[in-house]
Design a protein that fits this description.
The complex is a heterodimer of chains A (111) and B (114). With 111 residues, chain A is mainly β. Chain A is 0% helix and 54% strand. Chain A is globular, with a radius of gyration of 13 Å. The model of chain A has no long low-confidence stretch (mean pLDDT 94). Chain B is an all-beta fold. Helices cover 0% and strands 46% of the residues of chain B. In chain B, strands 1-9-8-3-4 form a five-stranded mixed β-sheet, with no helix packed on it. In chain B, strand 6 and strand 7 form a beta hairpin. Classes of the chains: A mainly beta (111), B mainly beta (114).
Chain lengths: 111, 114
């Protein structure tokens, strides 16, 4: 079974802190994705990557950056966390043309 | 991105079939129809996908209209564990990197009554 592991289930950070959300997949997938999910807004794509060191902006990239130094790991970085980045963050991976496999999410609270 | 339209919510009874509709009138010839569901406190999980023909797997069936402008996800015998938000999504089959992303709508919240 494909496993997508997000490093933390719950995270509390202070405004202005630099935050790293880590995601690791164990199936050698080319594609990796970061979404955030908010009530009433559904899942929105922040960034995705289709290869090591490659990244593409999604629909809401502002305030975020990503890093993909190794194929299995995709990191989401909040350079200076703000309260409007309090959300559930979901990582996913897939092969080309294949279904996405999601992690169970990181609930981030910025105070 | 081609859009889909789903009812906000549906309700059904345990052990009865459930038909979840999805409209996608602007679908292009290369778009696959994907269904995902999200159980409480979990990330979305893949259910089924198809292009033109009806599809069956162990979780559900997918019925696709002949003109491909709508589809229906069928749960043959709902259980309480099927209570979830169900998303109908179009995904391009083209090998263009940006085409690999999925755009989620609001989905249909399915409630199963015991």
């Amino acid at each position: 079974d494909v496993k997508v592991t997000q490093s933390s289930r719950y995270l509390v950070k202070r405004t202005g802190e630099k935050v790293f959300l880590e995601c690791v997949q164990d199936m050698d997938h080319e594609n990796m994705f970061w979404y955030r999910q908010d009530p009433g807004l559904g899942l929105r794509l922040i960034y995705f990557s289709y290869d090591v060191k490659m990244k593409e902006k999604g629909d809401i990239p502002e305030g975020y950056s990503v890093s993909r130094e190794k194929k299995e790991r995709f990191s989401l970085i909040l350079e200076s966390a703000s309260t409007n980045q309090t959300s559930m963050y979901l990582c996913a991976s897939s092969r080309l043309r294949s279904p996405l496999h999601f992690g169970n999410g990181t609930r981030l609270t910025v105070t | 991105d081609a859009k889909t339209t789903q009812p906000n919510s549906m309700e059904s009874n345990e052990e009865e079939p459930v038909h979840l509709p999805c409209n996608h009138s602007t679908i292009s010839g290369t778009d696959y129809i994907h269904w995902y569901r999200q159980l409480p406190s979990q990330g979305p999980e893949y259910v089924i996908h198809g292009l033109t023909s009806n599809v069956n797997n162990r979780m559900a069936s997918l019925a696709i209209a002949e003109d491909r402008k709508s589809s229906t996800l069928i749960l043959h015998r709902a259980t309480l564990r099927d209570a979830a938000v169900y998303y109908c999504i179009l995904r391009a089959s083209l090998l263009i990197q940006g085409a690999q992303k999925l755009v989620f709508g609001q989905g249909t919240r399915l409630t199963i009554n015991p």
